[in-house]
From TrEMBL:
<protein>
    <submittedName>
        <fullName>Type 1 glutamine amidotransferase domain-containing protein</fullName>
    </submittedName>
</protein>
<keyword id="KW-0315">Glutamine amidotransferase</keyword>
<keyword id="KW-0456">Lyase</keyword>
<dbReference type="InterPro" id="IPR002818">
    <property type="entry name" value="DJ-1/PfpI"/>
</dbReference>
<dbReference type="InterPro" id="IPR050325">
    <property type="entry name" value="Prot/Nucl_acid_deglycase"/>
</dbReference>
<dbReference type="Pfam" id="PF01965">
    <property type="entry name" value="DJ-1_PfpI"/>
</dbReference>
<keyword id="KW-0346">Stress response</keyword>
<feature type="domain" description="DJ-1/PfpI">
    <location>
        <begin position="28"/>
        <end position="217"/>
    </location>
</feature>
<comment type="similarity">
    <text>Belongs to the peptidase C56 family. HSP31-like subfamily.</text>
</comment>
<dbReference type="InterPro" id="IPR029062">
    <property type="entry name" value="Class_I_gatase-like"/>
</dbReference>
Length: 226
């Protein structure tokens, strides 16, 4: 059986007091999607509300993987993604949460999302997230009451990157929040590729890290499937 990956996306389209337009950052979903597709995995989507999600960074559509996602099945399937609570997550070997500023709006406290991530992680499934996507890992508690990120090697969008990107728009600093819940945070140079595997958890720092997160998730899933 080929592995099955569920990509979980935000439904937010604005953030902050200035109503900055946002969504899922195109390369952060398209590049991992391309890696899953090359590995011939089954790829499905879910969103938090079941409404059509939004994409950000459409100005990057000339990138080959981004364009393929937009014109192929990727965006079509993401656009019609069912509501997460209506998906049987037990059918999936992995979940992946792409970034963009949108997850900072509706993912920090979403109880269904936290439950899904904990369940997948505790049954030895793979959990991946990139850039602002690791906000989905915040407040996820395991069955022993500990935070999932506690003691885990984690990468996400950094404080330094946020200072030059969206500091005025985000509700809190992601690097700080992850660290406060016990994450061992790994920050590389701003905007450089940086993805990390810790057990069944794969995280990446920024858009440049999305491909690496996809590759590392593929490697984990193929090793489990062999």
């Amino acid at each position: 059986m080929k592995p099955k990956v569920l990509i979980i996306v935000s439904n937010a389209n604005t953030i902050g007091s200035n109503n900055r337009r946002t969504g899922t950052f195109l390369p952060e979903v398209a590049h991992p999607y391309a890696e899953f597709e090359k590995a011939d995995f089954q790829i499905d989507f879910a969103s938090l509300t079941g409404e059509s999600p939004f994409l950000d960074a459409l100005n990057l559509a000339d990138d080959p993987e981004n364009l393929k996602f937009l014109t192929g099945k990727g965006w079509e399937n993401m656009h019609s993604a069912p509501k997460l609570s209506e998906v049987d997550v037990n059918n999936y070997d992995a979940v992946f949460i792409p970034g963009g500023l949108a997850p900072m709006v509706d993912m920090p406290e979403n109880t269904e999302l936290k439950k899904v991530i904990a369940e997948v992680y505790e049954r030895n499934g793979v959990v991946g997230a990139v850039c602002h996507g690791p906000v989905s890992l915040l407040n996820v508690k395991l069955s022993d009451g500990t935070y999932l990120v506690n003691g885990k090697n984690i990468a996400s969008f950094t404080t330094e990157e946020e200072d030059s990107y969206a500091r005025a728009d985000v509700p809190f600093d992601l690097q700080t929040a992850l660290t406060e819940q016990g994450a061992i945070f790994h920050a590389a140079e701003p905007w450089s590729a940086n993805s990390i595997t810790d057990g069944n958890l794969v995280t990446g720092q920024n858009p440049a890290s999305a491909k690496g997160v996809g590759e590392k998730m593929v490697a984990l899933l193929e090793s489990k499937n062999s």
